[in-house]
What does this fold into?
Amino acid sequence: MTALDVVIMAAGKGTRMKSSMPKVLHRLAGKALVQHVIDTANELQARHTIVITGHGAEQVEAALTSTDAKKTLRFARQMPQLGTGHAVQQAVPLLPDDGVVVVLSGDVPLTQADTLQALIQLCDGKQLALLTIEFDDPTGYGRIVRDANGQVQAIVEHKDANETQRAIREVYSGIMAVPAKLLKPWLARLDNNNAQQEFYLTDVVRFAQSDGVPVVAHKIADAAQVAGVNSPTQLAELERAYQLRQAHALMADGVRIIDPARFDVRGALTCAQDVEIDVNCVFQGQVKLGQGVKIGANCVIANCEIQAGAVIHPFTHIDGEKLGVTVGEGALIGPFARLRPGAQLAAEVHIGNFVEVKNSTMAKGSKANHLAYLGDATVGERVNYGAGSITANYDGANKHRTVIEADVHIGSNSVLVAPVTIGAGGTVGGGSTVTKSTEPNALTVVRAKQISIANYKRPVKQAK
Ligand code: UD1
Ligand code: CA
It folds into this structure.
């Protein structure tokens, strides 16, 4: 099989974004536009992926280098930007002669790998293959001019087209596959004698004609796959298209999404059977939902695993970041709960409203139902952690652990000053500030003794 090399044009300015950030770094589904294109190239197992940079080149290259774990990306700078043909010319020194070159754009994020695979097959290592589409309104696009037999003759840019050509609704998508050994000499022959005085990549069609190389078109119907982002409005439209596509794929697998129009995945969401997701939830990074998990409305859930039967009530925020979060089987979380990195909750744990858990393990059946903080804590089974209680885990310089052994009850409004261990079966009286470890089964109360003065008379104002 012929090796594949991908050229991604990403030097354009993106004026209509009206942003100080280069266009291709704007995010769709939480990921830079150009990164979507690079990921597609990786899916195709491209040998080289060459990104043509220009406007904001340093920023684009820095952003992409930091995500290029396998160091497979190459960059070629295009300064100034003299057209798409000129853009691809910059890649020539990096393109081996024996490959097929696929030309993509950094601002067209949703082209699918199987579409490109079909295009590459059509190219067959020896033809010029164009990806085309029909639009009701083809204004602005290069028109596909065919002869009486339907053979592709030329691509004529909108600004160069006559009335008859402008009536053509089939347009060039901006994506082609072509053998490098044909492309290179064609690129060398480009000129800028046209309405825009640009070096048009599309002129290679004319050279193929004159060299007797067949030009073939792969016409698709799905506009989202070739749609470019030029403005915030188009970015939002493509975001929706992408999210709808993901929602429908999940629903096809049985996931019940209350409203696919109010559903966002920015990363990878995997769901077992009978998962239900209410409206306005956002899933980020890697999220795994087990069998029968229910997610209430308005939750943001990132980098975590939620095991079978767990219920996440509305307005819960979970982000495992690098350490991850685990919610055990049958656990009940929220509403208004916050689980931070390293929260490891076992089966049937209950976390209620305005409870924050960070870098803590909670064993089976333990509960913190109201207004509490557990940080750097190890909590045993069946613990009841009272409302308003906190672990004071930070002494201003270092973090320390709190250990709460099995069957402990922590009364409301307690402060556990770490490092400290509350022995198994122990009880801490409400309002206690515990600084020393306690014995198993002990009652610990650390607060001023209550005094009551019978028939107490409040002071009264003295007469003048
Ligand atoms: C190009 C095609 C047109 C096609 C359309 C599809 C040419 C001459 N025309 O139009 O037939 O219908 O795409 O969207 O190719 N870029 C550079 N350097 C440059 C110019 C552009 O890197 O000097 C990049 C842009 O950033 C963008 C891509 O190339 O990512 C396409 O450029 P754009 O200006 O959108 O395409 P057109 O030339 O209008
Ligand atoms: Ca343009």
